[in-house]
Design goal:
The protein is 27% helix and 25% strand. It is α/β, with parallel strands linked by helices and 457 residues long. It folds into 3 domains: 32 residues; 207 residues, 3-Layer(aba) Sandwich (Rossmann fold); 173 residues, 2-Layer Sandwich (Ribosomal Protein S5, domain 2). It has a 9-stranded mixed sheet. A 4-stranded mixed sheet has the order 13-14-16-15. Strands 2-1-3 form a 3-stranded antiparallel sheet, with no helix packed on it. Helix 8 packs across helix 9. It is globular and about 75 Å long.
Length: 457
């Protein structure tokens, strides 16, 4: 008899949707030309098929009888990295870190492992993209050589699991998850099935053995971590390493964290010795601020519990075209357009005949509504060609009627401005009533945009 041909399915490489035949567009995520053919395994595969016999279920217990020891986090020796994680590494967690190629993901992981190894913890670095000799050369350049830092070049998930069970490291890094291969599946490494199965096996390993596992993920051209979106739901923490390879500053941001805040960021500077943490980002972002330049305004945004002073630069220039341009970098384009419309209606500034360009200095992305006043003051300063007084900080959320609304954590923002040498700060009048008295900085309350314009210009 002729041998029965293997059955195949077509899987979307973006969201994991499966179909019996090839489709040009995925009906779930809407991606074009994302389907790839995969062979269905004849035998049940771990984590995907039904088990051959029923497993032994765990016994449910009342939640109030569960004993919880004091939370003992592992410190990596990198303060900015531990801050983003919520104070350190929690044993048994699965962390997914993504970023553009060459942004410094592997460098950050190697430096974090070195800090843990230097503290006496046994750590394991598994690379599917580099040989052991290449890892040694990079580690020697970064100065991260330690006897407790074990390295291996392997892509077989079963071999890695057996290795981890034998070595019992405290922390393990998989670089990268797209290179991992499970022999029970016939699809190629990097496919949806392989990435999903490898992540499931590593997740079970982390939860059962209390090993903290970092998964380094590739990023697509849209900025999302490659592979099915299911990965971000399976892991405990998702970190994104942001920044431009042409700039020295990098920002580590948490978009999901079951054991800490998702608003914290860590700022790093890239040099020939690797990544160095920036403990005072405000001083760095304001170090080259021009003096008495129209269109330049300083405001304060909150990233988790940390206030950061950032500089907004705006340029309003007349245009000869019917539709003016709105080019925005680092801010929400729709939010800036809304604020420009408020300026036209409430302040009488005719910006419809002007192109508006805005930039957040340092490559930072700001989405705090408390910085609305900074956007309006920067555009107004450029439009009127009048600089904002040196040493002045502006804060406040702006409504559609032109009112200045109260913001949160105003004391922390003002304290940071005072520490950086600012002499005056414009805040919402509602916040001024509850703000703590300060001798080193003058607080000016404002209820409407007209009052702010009178004070500044």
């Amino acid at each position: 008899m002729a041998k029965k041909s293997a059955k195949t399915l077509f899987s979307c490489q973006t969201c994991g949707h499966q179909a019996p035949k090839w489709m040009g567009r995925c009906p779930d995520c809407g991606g074009w030309d994302t389907f790839a053919e995969e062979v269905i395994a004849s035998a049940p595969t771990p984590g995907t098929g039904k088990p051959s016999r029923p497993g032994r279920a765990s016994v449910p217990v009342p939640i109030d009888t569960v004993t919880v020891d004091a939370e003992d986090r592992l410190g990596s020796g990198i303060g900015e990295f531990d801050r983003v994680l919520g104070g350190g590494l929690v044993p048994g967690t699965l962390v997914l870190i993504g970023g553009d190629p060459g942004i410094g993901k592997s460098t950050l992981m190697l430096q974090a492992l070195y800090g843990l190894a230097h503290a006496g913890h046994k750590v394991l670095y598994v690379s599917g993209e580099e040989s052991v000799r290449q890892i040694r050369l990079r580690s020697q350049r970064l100065g991260t050589l330690a006897s407790n830092l074990l390295v291996v070049s392997e892509i077989d998930v079963e071999a890695i699991l057996a290795m981890a069970a034998d070595i019992r490291p405290a922390v393990m890094v998989i670089d990268s998850i797209q290179t991992m291969f499970h022999p029970a599946l016939t699809s190629a490494p990097g496919s949806v099935s392989q990435v999903r199965e490898a992540t499931v096996q590593l997740m079970l390993m982390a939860k059962r053995s209390d090993i903290t596992i970092f998964l380094v993920g590739h990023v697509t051209k849209d900025g999302a971590i490659a592979g099915p979106r299911l990965l971000e739901h399976m892991v405990d923490t998702v970190l994104y390493f942001e920044g431009d390879r042409n700039h020295v500053f990098r920002v580590l941001r948490a978009v999901k964290n079951r054991f800490g805040s998702t608003n914290e960021i860590g700022v790093f500077e890239m040099n020939d010795r690797g990544l160095e943490e920036v403990t005072n980002p405000s001083a760095v972002f304001l170090s080259e601020r021009p003096v008495s330049a129209p269109g330049s305004v300083v405001t304060a945004c909150m990233e988790g519990t940390r206030p950061i002073l950032v500089e907004f630069q705006a340029l309003a220039s007349s245009t000869s075209f019917g539709t003016p341009r709105r080019t925005i970098l680092g801010l929400d384009r729709n939010r800036v357009a809304l604020l420009v419309a408020v300026m036209e209606k409430r302040l009488g500034m005719q910006l419809m005949g002007h192109d508006v360009f805005m930039n957040v200095v340092g490559g930072v992305k700001v989405d705090d509504p408390a910085t609305d006043m900074g956007v309006i003051c920067a555009v107004a300063s450029s439009f009127l060609d009048k600089p904002v007084a040196e040493g002045t900080l502006v804060l406040g959320e702006v409504g559609l009627t032109g009112e200045v609304r109260a913001i949160s954590q105003v004391d922390a923002r003002v304290a940071e401005a005072e520490k950086m040498g600012f002499s005056s700060c414009i805040v919402p009048a509602t916040n001024l009533k509850r703000a703590a008295a300060r001798n080193g900085i003058e607080l000016v309350g404002a209820r409407t945009l007209s009052e702010v314009m009178e004070v500044l210009f």
